[in-house]
Design brief:
The chain has 76 residues and is an alpha+beta fold. The protein has helices at 46-57, 67-75, and strands at residues 9-14, 29-34, 40-43. Strand 2 and strand 3 (40-43) form a beta hairpin. 5% of the residues are buried.
Length: 76
């Protein structure tokens, strides 16, 4: 049976806003961090965000589930 693994990432996006208030996705940049390990990188487009997430999630690291996390999941 497959195990479920939940990963969390913190993403800070800086938008270059035009005079009319719009922000083009091509002008996004910022930083993404994997919460469990602290691994982080800067990005300049959405594709780099997805690349980082894929690279982090394909690692063979399994974080143990704490009892309190499991209780929260079951009661929520």
């Amino acid at each position: 049976m497959a195990r479920r693994r939940v990963e969390s990432f913190l993403v800070r996006v800086v938008l270059q806003v035009q005079e009319d208030g719009t922000a083009e996705p091509e002008a996004w940049h910022g930083r993404i961090q994997r919460v469990s390990t602290g691994d982080a990188r800067q990005f300049n487009n959405v594709e780099e965000i997805l690349e980082f997430i894929r690279s982090q999630c394909t690692r063979h690291t399994v974080m143990p589930v704490r009892a309190s996390d499991e209780e929260t999941r079951l009661s929520g």
